[in-house]
Amino acid sequence: MSEEILMKVTGLKVVLPEKEGGETVIVDGVNLDIPRGKTVGLVGESGCGKSMTARSLMRLLDTPIYIKEGAIEFGETNLTALTEKEMRRIRGQKISMIFQEPMTALNPSITVGKQVREAILLHQKVSKKEAKDRVIKMFRDVGIPDPELRYKAYPHQLSGGLRQRICIAMAMVLEPELLIADEPTTALDVTVEAQILALMKQLQSSHGMSILMITHNLGVVADICDEVNVMYAGEIVEHAQKTELFHNPRHPYTLGLMKAIPRVRGKMDEELYTIQGTVPSFSDMPKGCRFCERCSFAEERCKAEHPPLVDIGNGHLVRCFREVSE
Amino acid sequence: MTKRRKQRQDTLAQMAGKTNPVLQVWKNFRRNPVALTALLILLAMVVVAVASGFVFDYNTQVVGLNPADRLQSPNSAHWFGTDAFGRDVFIRVIYGARYSLFIGIVTSAVSMLLGIIIGASCAYFGGIYDIVMMRVMDSIVCIPSMLLMLALVAVLGKGMNGIIIALIATSVPGFSRIVRSIVLNVVHQEYVEAAVACGTSHREIIVRHILPNCFGPILVDVLMSVAGCIMAASSLSYLGMGIQVPAPEWGAMLSDATPLLRAYPYLAIFPGIAIVLTSLCFNLIGDGLTDALDPKNR
Predict the structure, then answer these.
(1) A155 and which of A106, A135, A257, A296 could share a cystine (Cβ 3.0–4.6 Å)?
(2) In-domain check, residue A169
(3) For chain B, what are the domain ranges?
(4) ipTM of the assembly?
């Protein structure tokens, strides 16, 4: 518990204003601590608000979506209070981001080398020659073969794996303190996925940055994360250290996710477990527990009241009445 | 080791052939015989228009009119014949290219520039600014363009300046709307977001990341618009509201030829062909470029 917290998010609330004057809450009161040098996972299914959370950390939300409440403390500064200009100095330099689709995350009309070099020139006063040398060194660090040659390549000439490596190089070249990875391996095939995850781990140990890993893949979490936050319908429902979460999942949603992982040694004739139903829509959120309609443990109380996030020891937080009643 | 070396050479060869996107587009364009012919004709016209001052002496061969030579049919001395004042039609048509090409290119270039500024800023910043600007543009489009041009020329005065301003005013709204829709497509690409995530400024994003990726479709529109501007300029001149006689503008020449159309049709045919050919060339080049820019042809 003595570890230094790099980013502390408290009560983050992201809303989409509606035309009729109401608003839809997309991220509801999320607390998130990202320790220095650690990898924190944010897991959840599509549309649960995990990408929106990641985007708000960089203040990259598309209008009209905005951060209504909450503080994002990054070291000494509160990011929500910064002007757009001040924020621009943080982006890329202190916090950077890797996107899901390496196919579209690079500008097709500029060579990849120049694109990465631009990221350096934007923030630091160095000569173009020096910046280029640093780009080539970074390309080598992220495992791009023949970096001098690839420097002059256009994105469409490279494979998906190489492009994602370029994106990682672009995000890492200024040695940020926090790297936000928004499903960086979803668009890649599994062998390349393993390579990219290994690369991220290796870069983390050599550069010492923190990673916020957004994913819907528990396999990725098991591979790379130190701590895990499970998100459901805009809120965090469970938070624990990785080993604790995998050995002792407490929230019914997390349990469901674990059961839904296909296992090599599972019974052949058994159908894969699925969680029944769908995520409630943000405009029609249940008053009580947001998971109660899909939960096999649901009681009357779950429908009426919203469960709090309770600590069941060792920083393992669960948002479920089953833990409260004890 | 040999395998690795071969791979490396393959990559090198591949990159040398495909590296420059502009070269690639030119390669595709060259394969289209129609567009290539149009480009050659147009280049010839430009050369002739520019060089005409050195080859012909407009003052003695055209202005120094010779009543004895009036209304000759095309012959070896006067290739396109002579008009009612004995002026050589061939030389007049060639000089006319100067007006038409100049007007077409200048107005298209200026309206493209204004269209890019307005359209790109609307698409990028959006919000109230976008709504207000687009409604202003819409209200200009509402007025029939010929009517608007005539009204503007009536206010600004006939002649080169009036015609150019009138043409620009009528073509900017269309351009802005087209550029806006092209830019809107690009703005939501992930690489633009990635650039924002790197801390890039608005100006850099527009200039470095958005406009270069819109350049192809915009260029095609500019070429098409040059054709439109040449037609519009000739129409204005034909109506007597553009370039004034005795200047050898194609539309004005057509206007001169109208009363004599039955007896001396060649007076109208040659400037008419010049107008059609020029705008056709621009259109065909635009078409060819659309195909050449299509990513499927890479």
Answers:
(1) A106
(2) no
(3) 22-64+85-297
(4) 0.78
